[in-house]
Amino acid sequence: MLANQRIFSSFMLEFIDMTKRHFFTLALLFLFSLSQAQNGQPMVAGARGAGMGNAAIGFQDVHSLFSNQAGLAGLDQISFTAIGESRYSAFGIRSLGAGFAYPTNSGTFGLALQYFGIEEYNEQKVGIAYARQLFGKLSIGVQMDYLRLQVQDYGDRNLFTFEIGIQSQVSKNLRLGFFTYSPMQVEIVPGENIPTIFKIGGAYKISSKLNLAAEIEKDIDFPMEVHVGIEYALVDALDLRIGAQTEPSELSFGIGYHLKDQLNIDIAASYHQFLGITPTFNATYRLAKKKKKN
Predict the structure, then answer these.
(1) Residue in 180, 177, 156, 157 with CA at minimum distance from that of residue 167
(2) Which of 144, 160, 177, 191 is 20 to 30 A (C-alpha) from 209?
(3) Longest CA pairwise span in the chain (Å)
(4) How wide is the angle at C-alpha 146 spanned by C-alphas 144 and 152, nearest 5°?
């Protein structure tokens, strides 16, 4: 009897250990699916972008580092931002970012930092950007990215890719943009590449208080997404935002508070009917220094 108990106990310990290993693997796969194969792709363009359904291709602020680098060419102040997001907060997946933009007479230089994941699986990204106005109302921006993917007990992977964005101020109220992320496929492991993404869209200023943004996004390995958002200036210091996107289908809303044209505090939340709520927060600060005109 004692021998049988020992055999049974040994079997149960091996079974539990195997279950833990498979559970960890399944958890990582689940995390990977939640991120839609994040693999270093740009995070949301701050809480402003998150509150407007991630329709941010027409932005012209420091968050253009994460949506369309061509928008950096429209800056005239040194700007900093810090972003925090809890992806589907019940799962504990963190997305953190920071950005810095420095306008000069020769164009705007930028630095983007990004972290995504959990302790067992995470990604880091460092991007160096440059944008300038080419002629008339056309601007272009490029960003070189260094990516590091880490999986606990399986090591890490170091990769490089790039992003390109274009913006055109078609009229006083309409700005159109095009953006691509990693247009030349970069292999992570055999059969798995960094996502190649294309976006096209814009922003339209309906009135002095109301802005409309929309874009179409296509990852070559996933269905096309549609992003739309509306921003309304309730008062001079307070903006209200609402948005929606497909693939996955999510609704979002947010608010933005401005302090003396230098400090912005933005809060947003997006809702997925199965995975829950993703809250996003960012603080943006702009120095009073402005670049000199030629």
Answers:
(1) 177
(2) 177
(3) 92
(4) 160
